[in-house]
Each structure stands twice: as C-alpha cells, then as structure tokens.
C-alpha cells in the first residue's frame, strides 16, 4: 500500500504518514464498529484521502493536486461498502503492485543515502518495522534512528531522489543485497539461544525481504521495466539474490544451536546437528541447485556453496574441507578481502593441518590486527600445534578486541582450559 | 529542478599548458562534455574558474567585513568550476556529474533552493 501511494503521489514521506494514520484510524474505529468487508480497500481509501487533504493544505503542491484532481470526485466514502474501491482494480491499474514495491525497495538503497540510512529505511519503508523496533534491534537510541529516517526522507524530497528503476539496475541490486545481508548478520550475530522475545527477529525479517526482492526482480517484462525500457535486472543478479537467500537459510537453520542454554557460544564443530532445521536446509539446497550454472558464480553463490558444505555434512568429521578450501580459492578471486583470506586459512588448516593455516595467518598479519576473530583463530591453531603459550597470548589479544559478552566469556573459558 | 554541479580538484596537480603534451586532448574532452550538455538543453550556465591564487575573500563576522588574500578555506581540493543544470531528478543530475572529464577530483551535486524572479523576488525552484 505504501509503495502504491508513494508511486502515485511521488512522495514517500506523505505516503508513509498517510498509511500510519490510516492504520491508527482503523484500530480506533474497527474496534467500536465492525471490520469492513474490504479492509484493504478501506485502508487504501483513507490513506489516499489523507494525502489529498494534505496536498490541499499545501500551496506549494498545487501542481501535484491538479494531477490528482480527476480522482477526487471518484473517491468514495469508505464507510459505504458498495462504493469502496476494489483494491484488485487499483493493483491492476498499476500493472500489479510489484513495480512500485521494487522501486521503493531500490529507492531505499540509493547511493545518495549512506549505508546506515539504507538499512534503516529498508526496514522502515519496506519491512514495515516501527522506528522503536528498528532502534531496539540495532541497539541504537530511538532518537538517533528517528533522526536518521527523518533526514533521509528530507533528502529524498529536497534533492528529488527519484522512485524509479535505475539505469544501472545491477549496481543498485548489489547495494540492496548488501543491505539485506547486513540486516541478516545483525540479527544472526545478536540472536540465538535465549534472547529478548520483544526484539524483532532481524534474521527472519532479512529472509522475508530477500524472498520478496527475488519475487520482484523475477517479475515478467509486462510488470517491471517494459514501460521504462529496461529489463528487470540481469539473470546473474537474480541468481545472486537467490544465492543470498540460500546463504541466509543455511545460517538460519543453525541459529538455535549457536548459543547454549546459558547464552554461551557453541562452535560449529560442537553444534547439535540434530537440532538444525532440516527442512530449511533442504529448501536452501533446492534454491542453490536452481541457481548453479546461471552465469559465473558470484560471491553470494560461493558463500552459499560453502555454507551448504557445512549444512549437509552429517557430522563435523564428515565436512569436506578440501572442497571448502577450493571454494574459498574462488571467493578470493571474485571478492577477496582479508576476512575471506582468514576464513580460507581456517579451512586450509582443517584440510592440511594447523601449520599450513598458521603460515597463511602470518601472511595476513597487519591487515587483521584489530579483528578479534583473527586472534581467536590463531589461538585455536596454536593450541592444536601444541603451543599453549602462543595460544593463550592470542586468545588474550582476541579478548581485548571484542565487547560481545558471549564472545568474551567463550575466550575466557578457552584461556582457562589451556 | 535545478542542480549545481560543483567541480573541485587538487590544484597541486596543474593541468597541461598550451604546447605541453596532453593540452589538446584536455581541451577536446572538456569541449566535448560542454557541447554535449549544451545540446541536451539542460544547461542553465557554467564556467571554469581561475585557480585559487587569484581568489580574494571578504570575510563577514557579525556584520563586520574584512578582506583576505586567498579562497574561503584552504582545502586539499579547490573549487574549480561549475555547471548549473535543469533536470527532472537527482539521478539525471548524477549522470551528468559522472561524465565530467575530471580524471581525479569531485563533483558535488547540490539542489538549488531559491533563485530570484525577474523582479528580484526569491522564488522556490523546482
């Protein structure tokens, strides 16, 4: 509904306010009167009227009002059921809501907005989360987040950031996938085991939004892009979006075993695989099978293949570390980074012994000196190499670099156990 | 909607002078860009500025003014020129900003707020 109104009036801010107002009004009136037979149509009409009223009052928007005027006489009273507009008709008029929803999703990830803002806006306008919910999920003060969203809407309005399918759709989809994976990781790392049930599950929200993005990008030419003269994104980018979904599902399937009952970290090798969500893993397997071979393997596809190796290994001992190492080799070429190199070193250690892994960690040296997982990995490999002094020192450095209580507790226990 | 494309670059790397290698190419690419933007009909105005050593700044402090030799701020990147364009939205302005043949530097894209009417009344633009 937000997407439809935002597109119709080319005003994301007004549409957002109007939808919020309509929902409040629904809560108030539906409790005392009966729920209308077409609740969606009712909400749409109320929100639509709200925007018209607002535009009337705004002299500067007189031009936009003239465009909307032909519909004014046609907008019926929402309490007269027989004249409530058929939302299906409204959807058909717009060629399906997918086009507007995709444009809204892509707007939220516009490069003129910084990454934190992209994340907040996506959750707010596409996810429909409230500002307090988003703030709580990211452990950010509510006022800070509210300001961020207000500033973003202002910039969209004042700089006229358009609600449109961009010419370089692939680049924008890249940004969207980055934002979705950021949201997923925030949810994944913060949650698991015992957690505040009031906090929205960001991991589940990310999965939902990723699935939605795939649907929107897969829409046929009649719905997306034809009017704007472009195709709805290349096959490779749809494949990457699907690979991201598979990756998220593989992680999500293990989420409940990441922390034990006391809230302490359980390493991958020690997780109870019988409690991994088999159906979710199968769903991810299916997605990945469909996606393989559609163009060259992108970073999400490679990461999903790695996650697939872990998820489908019956026991930790069955893990095919040689294949995982080969996948990391490819990932280094396609989207190499110090963190990827670190993960590759850990895989090499599992395949070829801790010495081989340590040699690679030595090469990484300075670039990851401030990253606690570098030192934690180093500690594990030194412990396996019968160097307890070195291991303890590495774990101590890791401890000094993380503020996450679960990680701190885990490292303290590792230090004590050497 | 009007946008100002504010072009800045590092003046310590001077452009080639007449007779130096690269001068003709430089004139060509900037000429091509300017011609393209003019032919598109979006150009309102534009100019390249003489470098910051030619600048003089009038400082205002609580209404009192003083004159200072140099640009308003000593920064690594200096304001070098501008194009004022009239396009439908930010994306259109960004496309033109991307095509500026800078090599190294920045093009800030800022929407115009108000401009004077024919009789001098400030009017909201766009």
Walkthrough of the structure:
The complex is a heterodimer of chains A (418) and B (126). With 418 residues, chain A is mainly alpha-helical. Chain A has a domain at 22-94. Chain A has 20 helices and no strands. The longest helix of chain A is centred in the middle third of the chain and has 22 residues, at 169-190. Chain A is elongated, with a radius of gyration of 25 Å. The termini of chain A are far apart. Mean pLDDT of chain A is 85; it is low at 70-85 and 220-232. Chain B has one domain: 2-Layer Sandwich (Alpha-Beta Plaits), CATH 3.30.70. Chain B has a 4-stranded antiparallel β-sheet with strand order 2-5-1-6, covered by helices on one side. Chain B has 2 helices and 8 strands. In chain B, 21% of the residues lie in helices and 39% in strands. Chain B is α+β, with helices and mostly antiparallel strands. In chain B, strand 3 and strand 4 (64-69) form a beta hairpin. Chain A binds chain B through residues 60, 112, 158-162, 164, 166-167, and chain B through 1, 88-91, 94-95, 109, 111, 124, 126.
- Domains counted in the coordinates of chain B: how many? 1
Biggest sheet: strand arrangement of chain B: 2-5-1-6
What is the average of the pLDDT values of chain B?
92
Oligomer: heterodimer
Helix and strand pattern of chain A: HHHHHHHHHHHHHHHHHHHH
CATH topology name of chain B, in short, is Alpha-Beta Plaits
Mean pLDDT of chain A: 85
How much of the sequence lies in strands of chain A comes to under 5%
CATH C-level class of chain B is Alpha Beta
Number of helical elements of chain B: 2
Query: Tally of extended strands of chain A?
Result: 0
Q: Percent helix among the residues of chain A?
A: 55-70%
Terminal residue distance of chain A: 58 Å
Q: What is the helical fraction of chain B, as a range of percent?
A: 10-25%
Largest sheet features of chain A: none
Determine the number of helices of chain A (DSSP H or I, runs of at least 4 residues). Answer: 20
Most extensive interface: pair and counts? A-B, 10 and 11 residues
Q: Provide the structure class of chain B.
A: alpha+beta
């Amino acid at each position: 509904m937000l997407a439809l109104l935002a597109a119709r009036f080319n005003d994301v801010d007004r549409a957002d306010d109007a939808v919020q107002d309509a929902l409040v009004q629904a809560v108030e009136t539906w409790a005392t009167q009966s729920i209308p037979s077409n609740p969606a149509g009712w909400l749409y009409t109320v929100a639509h009227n709200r925007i018209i009223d607002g535009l009337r009052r705004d002299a500067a928007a007189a031009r936009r009002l003239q465009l909307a005027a032909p519909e004014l006489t046609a907008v019926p009273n929402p309490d007269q059921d027989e004249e409530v507009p058929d939302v299906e008709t409204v959807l058909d008029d717009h060629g399906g809501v997918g086009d507007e929803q995709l444009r809204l999703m892509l707007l939220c990830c516009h490069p003129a907005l910084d990454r934190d803002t992209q994340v907040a806006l996506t959750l707010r306008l596409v996810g429909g989360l409230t500002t307090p919910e988003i703030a709580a999920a990211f452990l950010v003060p509510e006022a800070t987040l509210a300001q961020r969203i207000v500033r973003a809407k202002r910039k969209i309005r004042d700089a006229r950031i358009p609600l449109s399918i961009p010419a370089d759709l692939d680049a924008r989809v890249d940004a969207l996938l980055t934002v979705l994976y950021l949201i997923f990781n925030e949810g994944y790392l913060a949650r698991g085991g015992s957690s505040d049930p009031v906090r929205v599950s960001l991991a589940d929200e990310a999965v939902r939004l990723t699935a939605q993005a795939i649907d929107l990008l897969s829409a046929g030419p009649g719905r997306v892009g034809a009017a704007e003269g472009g195709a709805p994104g290349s096959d490779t980018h749809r494949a990457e979006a699907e690979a991201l979904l598979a990756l998220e599902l593989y992680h999500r399937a293990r989420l409940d075993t990441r922390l034990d009952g006391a809230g302490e970290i359980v390493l991958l090798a020690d997780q109870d695989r019988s409690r991994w969500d088999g159906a979710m893993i199968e769903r991810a397997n299916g997605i990945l099978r469909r996606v393989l071979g559609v163009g060259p393997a992108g970073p999400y596809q490679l990461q999903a293949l790695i996650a697939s190796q872990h998820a489908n290994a019956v026991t930790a001992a069955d893990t095919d570390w040689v294949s995982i190492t080969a996948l990391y080799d490819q990932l280094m070429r396609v989207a190499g980074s110090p963190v990827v190199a670190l993960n590759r070193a850990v895989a090499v250690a599992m395949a070829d012994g801790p010495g081989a892994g340590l040699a690679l960690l030595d090469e990484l040296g300075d670039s990851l000196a401030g990253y606690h997982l570098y030192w934690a990995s180093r500690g594990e490999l030194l412990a396996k190499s019968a160097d307890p002094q070195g291991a303890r020192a590495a774990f101590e450095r890791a401890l000094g670099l993380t503020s996450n209580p679960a990680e701190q507790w885990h490292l303290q226990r590792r230090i004590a156990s050497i | 909607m009007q946008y100002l494309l504010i072009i800045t670059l590092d003046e310590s790397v001077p452009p080639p002078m007449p007779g130096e290698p690269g001068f003709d190419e430089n004139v060509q690419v900037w000429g091509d860009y300017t011609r393209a933007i003019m032919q598109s009909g979006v150009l309102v105005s534009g100019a390249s500025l003489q470098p910051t050593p030619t600048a003089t700044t009038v400082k205002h402090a609580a209404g009192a003014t003083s004159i200072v030799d140099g640009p308003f701020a000593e920064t690594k990147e200096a304001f070098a020129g501008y194009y004022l364009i009239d396009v439908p939205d930010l994306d259109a302005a960004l496309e033109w900003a991307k095509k500026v043949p800078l090599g190294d530097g920045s093009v800030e894209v800022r929407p115009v707020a108000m401009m004077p009417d024919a009789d001098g009344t400030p009017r909201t633009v766009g």
